[in-house]
Amino acid sequence: MNNIIITPWRQELKFLIPKNKVHNIVALLSAHLNTTALESGEVSTLYFDLPGDPCFFGKIGGDANKTKLRLRDYGNPKESWLEIKQKEDNVGRKIRFACSSNDWRESYDHLNASNYGLPAINSPWRESVFIKYHRQSWANNSIRLTLDQNFYFARNNHDYCPWWQDMAIIEIKAKDINSRAYQILNLYGYSPQAISKFAVAYSLTRGHVQSPITLGEV
After folding, report:
1. Which domains are seen in the chain, by residue range?
2. Most Cβ neighbours (<10 Å): which of 2, 77, 179, 215?
């Protein structure tokens, strides 16, 4: 079986940008940061939760320490990843393991999830919400940038509905919160926000909100 991949702890800041401003912002960031373009394509994610939806309510309740379980593919449905996403305030990391959509529970067991703050394998995890969007990525030695847009959500893995079609999310992942990318976005009037695609999609599928919302500024 493949090894577990663990990303280092790093600062993670998200910015909600009007789509008609994205081209200029990305060009500005690329010019100043000397980044290399990485993968580009559709990201598909199935988020799980437990009875009572503690992952969702922990997110919207502002819990400082949050853990999510998801099954994700990055443009190749034949190569899925079971991922544990941990976040402490604005610092996050990802633990992931390659698997298929049919054997994710076996992979969950292999991850020894109890070491990462998740319940034991016999816990009643269930499908919560499906999300799809287009992602572009750039990186250099100290920073990773992602641009997500064209968002769709569903309660099951079909009948997807669009949301935030006029907006995009730029995310900065870096060891230093005061990175050059943050300074540039702040200079042009963009502040980091507590944006959760999972929480918004969950709310929309349950009819909790009439239109997409963010969870406030960081």
Report:
1. 6-205 (3.20.100.30)
2. 179
